[in-house]
Amino acid sequence: MLRNKLPGKGTTIFSVMSKMAQDQGAINLSQGFPDFDGPEALRERVTYHMSNGHNQYAPLTGVPELREQIALKVLDLYGCNIDPDTEVAVTPGATEAIFCAITTVVHPGDEVLVFDPAYDTYEPNVTLNGGVTRHIALRYPDFSIDWQQVRDSITERTRLIILNTPQNPTGTLWGEEDIRQLREIIAERDIYLLSDEVYEHIYFDGKQHLSLLRYPDLAAKTFVISSFGKTYHTTGWRIGYAIAPRPLMDEFLRIQQFINFSTNAPMQYAIADFLRDCPQHHYELGSFYQAKRDLFCQLMAKSRFKLIPSSGTYFQLADYSAISDEPDTEFAARLTREHKVAAIPVSVFYKQAPDQRIVRFCFAKHDDTLREATGRLVGL
Ligand code: GLN
Q1: Residue 31: CB within 6 Å of ligand 1?
Q2: What number does the ligand 1 atom closest to the CA of 121 have?
Q3: Cα(12) to centroid(ligand 1), Å
Q4: For position 1, what pLDDT does the model report?
Q5: Within 13 Å and on the Cβ side, how many CA atoms surround 261?
Q6: What is the pLDDT at residue 45?
Q7: 92, 229, 359, 369: which could form a disulfide with 343 (CB 3.0–4.6 Å)?
Q8: Is the CB of residue 32 below 6 angstroms from any atom belonging to ligand 1?
């Protein structure tokens, strides 16, 4: 008899809603991906490298050219000096890096703190390693962290805290006070950090992204995870990476080598070229998406959805309690079926969903797609 290693976990909401959108012929504002391509110059570099002999296994840690560019980028943006040979690993997508990082530190019985609403990959990864997640719900409606609750949730079994900034799905950013509280809490404790920063370039309104790489004392205990899919509008390429200090990375690599061995080579060379030649792309990504957020919010202003301010990521939360009191999974399904716009119900990101009526829209879409979709939503 096959025993289920992830009891209670079905198909991810992203697969469910994208399939429903497709089956219903709806505009898909659910799963987070752009409906436009990445830069042509980047795509041309992939073709170039495929035609010029870069089609065999890359090294386990990633091609040296890309690791070098990642090191230069984090020095430029966060003032952080990493050794590109020993402190970075390129992975097939950030999801894989998250799994390897969790597997590196979590042993059976260990506890891991996550902030709800949390991205849905963290908890199953902890479960697969025999660990247990402790969930701290962010405060509604500003989704700030209750640090007293964090303190109260720490035990001698707490091994890891997972944070995500800019945060999916809330669009919130960590601030200096959060960093200060975190520092105090983990001081002199045997607790590691996993900082999921895949939206690191997408933040708005002159705010800042506080990568943990900015803080040497925290970075010494942290796996920082990022991805190129969000940055270059290439979520289907599946290239992410982890940065961690040497002792953590050595252990991470011992595990990673038996999971994926290495990441596809030609795209790594292409991204390395593009990072070197076109840093403006990531410098300008925040304003590119801020314009989309503003357009989406302006078009939705006439609707009965109440928008919850988004300071980063390419997601916008919307409270629909003025429209319906259905639970969010039912509302999202009906929205897809009857109004032909798909969104993500936010309750699925909670261990214990509060009494909220919120869905998540992805605004990484052509302006015309946003106009068409909001045209269908404003009448509700
Ligand atoms: N990160 C994407 C989102 O939040 C989904 C990725 C996935 O489908 N696993 O929508």
Answers
A1: yes
A2: 9
A3: 9
A4: 86
A5: 5
A6: 98
A7: 359
A8: yes
